[in-house]
Design a protein that fits this description.
Length: 236
């Protein structure tokens, strides 16, 4: 997958190239990362990329020309998706990461700054994405979240693809607890069922734990799971 980031601080993305399995995925050619600085496309002597908003108001707004020219200089792959980082966007979900990993050959991520984008830049985006109901100084951190989340789903990045199927948010339930050796540590004992060798009992215990955790920690997800179960029952 090709990842192109339009950002005023492209150096912020360099640590991703050495970040654990994500860095190894870049080194192995599973994904490739390219950054594009709108300042390189500014035409004035000061490389100006922002200006005062029409109508007045606090702060500065990203000008359309440098951002759009930077965007237009990016090579186009057949299955391309353009994402704008925006607190006005749709909340990011695991299903989005999975969809982009499976259906896109190229992701372009547009990172804003200051008071945001000139509205004419929004026309470039296929989707606007938010990582939460809060505002940051720029779109770089949200873009890095998406890059991390997508690249780890690409075939070959994670050693065992099975480990991706049973984690939190891969379905509608949170993941079950995990334990490893030793069997006892400071009075806390690994549940006996996990040491029993009874795989059927282990699967039932894990599902019970998923239901309990989701019901307690994320009642919204639990309600969604119940609704899906009801749909499945009616569809039979």
């Amino acid at each position: 997958m090709r990842l192109d980031v339009v950002s005023l601080v492209p150096d912020a993305f360099q640590p991703l190239l050495g970040l654990g399995v994500i860095g190894r995925a870049f080194a192995a050619g599973i994904a490739e990362l390219h950054t594009h600085n709108p300042r390189d496309y500014a035409t004035d002597r000061y490389r100006k990329v922002d200006d005062l908003p029409y109508g007045g108001g606090a702060g500065m707004v990203l000008k359309p020309e440098p951002v759009i020219h930077a965007f237009e200089a990016i090579p186009v792959l057949p299955r391309r998706q353009v994402l704008m980082m925006s607190p006005q966007g749709q909340p990011l979900r695991q299903a989005d990461l999975q969809r982009w990993a499976e259906t896109a050959d190229q992701l372009i991520l547009l990172c804003g700054h200051y008071e945001g984008f000139d509205e004419r830049i929004r026309g470039l985006a296929d989707e606007e994405v938010s990582i939460g109901d809060f505002v940051l100084t720029g779109g770089e951190l949200p873009a890095m979240v998406i890059i991390n989340g997508v690249v780890r789903l690409l075939p070959g990045t994670v050693g065992s693809a099975l480990s991706l199927e049973h984690e939190s948010h891969s379905g509608s339930l949170l993941e079950h607890p995990h334990y490893t050796r030793p069997a006892e540590f400071r009075g806390q004992v690994v549940p006996e069922v996990l040491r029993s060798g009874d795989h059927g009992a282990i699967e039932r215990w894990r599902l019970e734990q998923q239901l309990q955790r989701t019901r307690e920690r994320r009642p919204d997800l639990y309600a969604r799971w119940l609704a899906l179960q009801d749909q499945d029952d009616r569809g039979r």
